[in-house]
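Example S7 (structure tokens).
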């Protein structure tokens, strides 16, 4: 059997120490990477990434994704230098433009998101390349800074920078400036068609081709031997995403009516009671369209659809309690 690329995505629904067991188990089963989410105000990505890196030997560890607004650029570079010290050549920096209303609620004004991202990536890349950097842009001002390594490796660090892009303009810029894209979840496989078109447009500007851009994709994956139970788990997750993250709701193609009905029930943060009430408003057809949910065979078949449309490595987001069944379903060895 040819080894297929597959990765695991961890959020906040499990005890953090259990996450270390899942990372080790995924490595045993031939997964290539584990990615840690950082979206709502619940679990930061860096602490779990360090923990996963410390308990594995070969597994790559990615941020899926941090935002480019809340960490000073010097600290951001030092953070990824530190992670690379812990797990050389195994760290991936996944970075995104964040989203409102959350950003606005913590006092971040996300103006000119493309320019802000471009400046961040340029300086981050140069710092990780061990250059001395002076840069005065609209969002970043640095004077003669470099990663101040006195003890340890002074050579440039191999940390791929991948943009978590959703909208077409950010997707195009990703093709131009990033090492890869982290394609979003809660979208149907055909969403990838336009995404690849925009990526390719960007790669041409940089004299590259689409094959030069890695394209891992987050995929909500609910695997259960009981088909109906798997669908139920996905509905619980989807009602939160559709209510709280407008960019995902827009990309998923869900009707405004469904979103408004769910929002009328869910507060933020949502309570378990509200979620259990709102989940029934999520149409089952939608679950099948934008997630890989069902029995192991059904989940495998749906993930194949994303791969046929340009995803190079599925990053599976386990929904429901049985993380090990998901890992076993997609095991490569």
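Recovered sequence:
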């Amino acid at each position: 059997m040819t080894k297929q690329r597959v990765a695991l995505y961890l959020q906040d629904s499990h005890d953090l120490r259990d996450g270390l067991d899942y990372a080790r188990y995924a490595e045993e089963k031939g997964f290539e990477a584990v990615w840690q989410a950082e979206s709502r105000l619940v679990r930061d990505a860096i602490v779990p990434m360090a923990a996963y890196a410390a308990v594995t030997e070969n597994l790559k560890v990615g941020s899926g994704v941090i935002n480019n607004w809340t960490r000073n650029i010097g600290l951001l570079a030092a953070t990824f230098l530190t992670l690379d010290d812990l797990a050389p050549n195994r760290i991936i920096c996944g970075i995104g433009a964040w989203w409102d209303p959350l950003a606005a609620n913590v006092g971040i004004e996300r103006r000119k998101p493309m320019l802000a991202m471009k400046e961040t990536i340029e300086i981050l890349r140069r710092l990780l390349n061990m250059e001395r950097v002076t840069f005065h842009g609209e969002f970043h001002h640095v004077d003669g800074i470099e990663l101040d390594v006195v003890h340890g490796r002074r050579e440039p660090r191999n940390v791929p920078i991948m943009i978590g892009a959703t909208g077409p303009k950010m997707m195009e810029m990703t093709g131009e400036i990033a090492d890869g894209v982290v394609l979003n979840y809660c979208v149907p496989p055909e969403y990838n068609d336009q995404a690849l078109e925009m990526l390719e447009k960007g790669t041409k500007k940089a004299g590259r081709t689409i094959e030069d851009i890695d394209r891992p994709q987050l995929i909500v994956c609910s695997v259960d031997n009981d088909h109906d139970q798997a669908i139920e788990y996905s509905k619980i997750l989807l009602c939160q995403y559709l209510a709280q993250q407008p960019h995902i709701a827009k990309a998923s193609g869900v009707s405004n009516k469904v979103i408004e009905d769910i929002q009328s029930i869910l507060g933020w943060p949502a309570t378990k009671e509200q979620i259990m009430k709102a989940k029934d408003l999520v149409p089952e057809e939608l679950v099948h369209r934008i997630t890989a949910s069902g029995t192991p065979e059904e989940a495998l078949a749906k993930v194949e659809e994303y791969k046929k449309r340009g995803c190079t490595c599925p990053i599976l987001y386990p929904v429901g309690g049985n993380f090990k069944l998901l890992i076993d379903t997609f095991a490569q060895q």
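Notes on this example. The mean pLDDT is 95.
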